[in-house]
Amino acid sequence: MINRGNKNILVLLFLVTVFCVYNLVIYTHNDRENPIKLNSDALRGQQLWQNNNCWSCHQVYGLGGYLGPDLTNIYSIPNKGPQYIKAFLNSGVKSMPKFEFSDTEKDDIVAYLKYIDSTGYYPNYEAKFKATGWVELKYKNEK
User: Fold this and answer.
1) Going by C-beta distance under 8 Å and a sequence separation of 6 or more, which residues neighbour residue 38?
2) Average pLDDT for 84-96
3) Torsions phi, psi of 112, nearest 5?
4) Count of domains for the chain
């Protein structure tokens, strides 16, 4: 006969086992795509983005600071794009600090933001949640 204390231990052991098996299945499954690697310009742009702490004010995919706008799709928004981005990088408008990026550095940051823009939409209203816990997204490079 199983007493109450042993029963609780068995239930806990069962739950931990289910949790471990679930995580093993989720994190070892190979149905995820390999991410696209950044080209050298975008990689330098990412490094500039991080070194100048752009995350503290701006968001990408809703993650980051709230002082500046979300820049996930800034590259492809009508009436914006590369020239618009470059104009703001050195201007220091409103609460954005005035940077002194070279033309090459501005091109690199634009390349990074172009890459981010090419990966998807934010907010993505067509996302589907799978029973496995993964989210199926619609990417820009998919038809």
Assistant:
1) 46, 112, 115
2) 84
3) -65, -45
4) 2
Going by C-beta distance under 8 Å and a sequence separation of 6 or more, which residues neighbour residue 39? 111, 115
Dmax (CA) of the chain? 78
Q: Are residues 25 and 46 in the same domain?
A: no
- Domain range for 90: 40-119
In single-letter form, the type of residue at position 52 comes to N
Q: Give the pLDDT of residue 41.
A: 95
| 115 & 87 share domain | yes
Q: How many CB atoms are located within 10 Å of the residue 53 CB?
A: 11
How many Å apart are CA 8 and CA 88, to the nearest integer?
61
For position 20, what pLDDT does the model report? 95
> Two tokens at 131?
């029973």
Distance between CA 106 and CA 101 in Å, rounded?
A: 6
Q: What is the pTM of this model?
A: 0.68
DSSP H helices, 34-133, are 40-51, 82-89, 103-119
Residue 11 banded pLDDT, cuts 50, 70, 90:
very high
Segment 52-72, tens digit of pLDDT: 999 999 999 889 999 989 999
